[in-house]
């Protein structure tokens, strides 16, 4: 890639700022898809440009089912982000992932039902592959950073994302375990799908806060219990990010093809495209739309 990488960080529950940034400035970035969760925090970490966005807004005013995921990803794309680290609080569906564990997710199951899941639509249709929803290059750099920081992080795991904001019933929790899911949360979908459509390399660091409600020897999940584990995990998450950013910046190429995901995704003929939607897609898909403009 010709331009220098810009590392984006989306902070989940309990992570509303990133320590250690230099030249910090918060700035509102407009999006064609509405208002992002908050202003974006611009800064540098070890000389690498970094853009941070608190997913729920500072102070956590936005619930998971009301986050404007399209505006968040579109704004990060407009800010120049090329590589995106998603930090998320999750519940565990596996005995060997107790509270305090870190998981570098490699697969998702999307059980959200009421969210806008694509930038594209009537007037400009596109289908991107989600077979491998996480950028293996980013995940590898995060694994290296975790090891160097003394943070035990399991590489690989299936993350089921539910609509929320309610936690699961016992029957649902047991069902998801029977499907082979490892962790459960409410925010990484459609975030990962939209990052792929925006041609941004994306990886999730999932921080386990509880055992959901399936474990017979642990109490059902509560906000107070989650908050206590989040506080303990926050410093580890920041250390992991600080160690990962230079590694990501030094490794610019994406063999997986995340940054060219739209090359063969557009199906609407140029002359049939809706000009208004095409204009909204200027940041997300401008690279390929300009290349295929009608004569």
Polypeptide structure, described:
The protein is an alpha/beta fold and 295 residues long. The chain has a single domain, classed as Rossmann fold, CATH 3.40.50. 28% of the residues lie in helices and 21% in strands. Strands 1, 2, 3, 4, 5, 6, 7, 8, 9, 10 and 11 form an eleven-stranded mixed β-sheet that branches. The longest helix is centred in the last third of the chain and has 27 residues, at 223-249. The model has no long low-confidence stretch (mean pLDDT 92).
CATH superfamily: Nucleoside phosphorylase domain
Binned strand content: 15-25%
Any idea what the CATH architecture is? Answer: 3-Layer(aba) Sandwich
* Proportion of residues in helical segments: 25-40%
Number of domains: 1
Largest sheet: 11 strands, mixed
Given the helix and strand composition, which structural class is it? alpha/beta
Mean pLDDT: 92
Cα(first) to Cα(last) distance is 28 Å
Shape verdict? globular
Task: Tell how many strands the DSSP assignment holds.
Answer: 11
Helix-strand pattern: EEEEHEEEHEEHEHEHHH
């Amino acid at each position: 890639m010709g331009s220098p990488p810009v590392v984006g960080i989306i902070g989940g529950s309990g992570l509303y700022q990133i320590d250690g940034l230099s030249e910090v400035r918060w700035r509102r970035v407009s999006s064609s898809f509405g208002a992002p969760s908050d202003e974006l925090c611009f800064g540098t970490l070890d000389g690498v440009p970094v853009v941070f966005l608190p997913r729920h807004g500072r102070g956590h005013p936005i619930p998971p089912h009301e986050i404007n995921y399209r505006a968040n990803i579109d704004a990060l794309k407009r800010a120049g982000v090329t590589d995106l680290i998603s930090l998320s609080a999750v519940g565990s569906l596996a005995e060997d992932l107790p509270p305090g564990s870190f998981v570098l997710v490699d697969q998702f199951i999307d059980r959200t039902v009421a969210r806008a899941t694509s930038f594209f639509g009537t007037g400009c249709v596109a289908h991107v592959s989600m077979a491998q929803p996480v950028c293996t290059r980013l995940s590898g750099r995060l694994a290296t950073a975790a090891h160097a920081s003394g943070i035990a992080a399991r590489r690989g795991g299936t993350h089921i994302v539910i609509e929320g904001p309610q936690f699961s019933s016992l029957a649902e929790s047991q069902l998801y375990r029977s499907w082979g899911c490892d962790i459960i949360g409410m925010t990484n979908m459609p975030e990962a799908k939209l990052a792929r459509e925006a041609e941004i390399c994306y990886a999730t660091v999932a921080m386990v806060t509880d055992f959901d409600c399936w474990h017979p020897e642990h109490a059902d999940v509560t906000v107070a219990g989650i908050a206590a584990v989040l506080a303990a995990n926050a410093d580890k998450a920041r250390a992991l990010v600080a160690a990962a950013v230079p590694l990501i910046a030094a490794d610019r190429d994406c063999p997986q093809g995340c940054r060219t995901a739209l090359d063969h995704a557009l199906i609407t003929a140029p002359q049939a495209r809706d000009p208004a939607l095409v204009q909204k897609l200027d940041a997300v898909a401008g690279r390929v739309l300009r290349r295929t403009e009608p004569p």
